[in-house]
Amino acid sequence: xxxxxxxxxxxxxxxxxxxxxxxxxxxxxxxxxxxxxxxxxxxxxxxxxxxxxxxxxxxxxxxxxxxxxxxxxxxxxxxxxxxxxxxxxxxxxxxxxxxxxxxxxxxxxxxxxxxxxxxxxxxxxxxxxxxxxxxxxxxxxxxxxxxxxxxxxxxxxxxxxxxxxxxxxxxxxxxxxxxxxxxxxxxxxxxxxxxxxxxxxxxx
Length: 204
Prior knowledge:
By secondary structure, this protein is of the alpha+beta class. It has one domain (about 55-200): Protein Transport Mog1p, Chain A (3-Layer(aba) Sandwich), CATH 3.40.1000. About 20% of the residues lie in helices and about 30% in strands. It has helices at about 1-15, 105-110, 185-200, and strands spanning about 55, 65, 70-80, 90-95, 115, 125-130, 130-140, 145, 160-170, 175-180, 200. The termini are far apart.
């Protein structure tokens, strides 16, 4: 009997040591998780450099005054010539990159502020200074009415007025130089106006 029990115990020990193989996909196995898709890492935006504005030298004979509108980069008083009743003005406008309208649209708007002017009498030219292209327009005589844009004390149409204008194409956008006033005053200030245009350059 004792030997039989020993044999049974030995058999039980052997059978107990055998491990039952785990079925494939047993709940104890770690679930298969699909690899995450590679996401494109957003590249940092390249910071755009601020546009290079233009500079110029104040010409002798024109007095810089405080601009009366935020649209104006600068304003000048053009001293009246002998025989004229009032001073002229030079205003410099800048609206930002790509703003302000086309060259022709602005010239057309300036011309339409004058009545009694034959289109053939409007002088236009292209010039260049310090690598910047400039478009000039000249009206020697006419009745000028700027509406609300005039900085003078008196408003309304003004007879025997003239205009010297220029649009400068700069890397930061177009700049508009517009000088208006009594005809003799503007004619006398034309050399100073052209001297200013000759000094315009990109950057300081």
